Hints:
Strand content: under 5%
Oligomer: single chain
Largest sheet: none
Number of strands: 0
Helix content: over 70%
Mean pLDDT: 86
Radius of gyration: 21 Å
Structural class: mainly alpha
Amino acid sequence: xxxxxxxKKLWIGIAISAFFLFLLFRKIDFAxxxxxxxxxxxxxxxxxxxxxxxxxxxxxxxxxxLLLPIKKTxxxxxxSSTLIGYMANNLLPARLGExxxxxxxxxxxxIGTSAVFASLVLDRLxxxxxxLLVLLITFFTIHLPAGMERIQGGLVTxxxxxxxxxxxxxxxxxxxxxxTDLTVRLVSRIITPVSARFSDQIAxxxxxxxxxxxxxxxxxxxxxxxxxxxxxWASAIWPVDLVLRSFxxxxxxxxxxxxxxxxxxxxxxxxxxxxxxxxxxxxxxxLSAFNIGPEQALSIALVIHGLSFFPVIAVGxxxxxxxxxxxxxxxxxxxxxxxxxx
Length: 342
């Protein structure tokens, strides 16, 4: 990715974030917002913060099993690289945190960055299907107040679209793995009329990428991936419930699942680093389905976002310093790395 493209994506993301921030704050009564923060019961925040880091630790555990076909890696290296990657996603544009995460672990474990990045594709697919499960459970068990049928309908539509997208990605990766030459030829045939040079680059990238994907085949390893995926999202949803309770809002756990689904969709939208604006807008929209006022909803959104933003940045930067790495060095490596994620 060139610096020009990165800058362009950064400015587009900032513009999108600014738009959603405008939508959020244009009708906010700041006196009511401050009053909502005064209701915060801080006793709920420490356990919510602990659970947030438990979720990241479980991500490292799952990543360990996903990497077993390539190498037996150290859990400490996986955990620190996971936090470095999420820290970078909060600070850098264009989701460069994924490359930072792969680069960090690759350096520590002596694994090629492309192979590590391929494992992160499997990591995201695991997330996608777990979120779909959360969405289905939410859809069949949640009861929104009267008049909120449009929001529930939108959730169902989003679920269908996401399900179709993940099935398409899974089918493409399966075809690429099983019939690499055929798949590469088909993709090249589609792209060649647009740009023959770009077609050659894509073909080379696809071959390099798929050669790095190794799927665990042992049943205990697959079971560990499944269980850790469920625990990752359980420990990510629970803090949402704790934050709600800290503001005196008592809702069934399905409400926190409902909010989390909205937040997952929000981070898919291009935005500034840290998903500022889109994240808060999605959270406020989800909370409005339970007749929670905009000021209280925004205060809740700010705390939920803050729990996964500032502490992760602090710990991620510590690990980055400890490993004698810098974001500038890794970003420069990303520009020179052929086939680095965009």
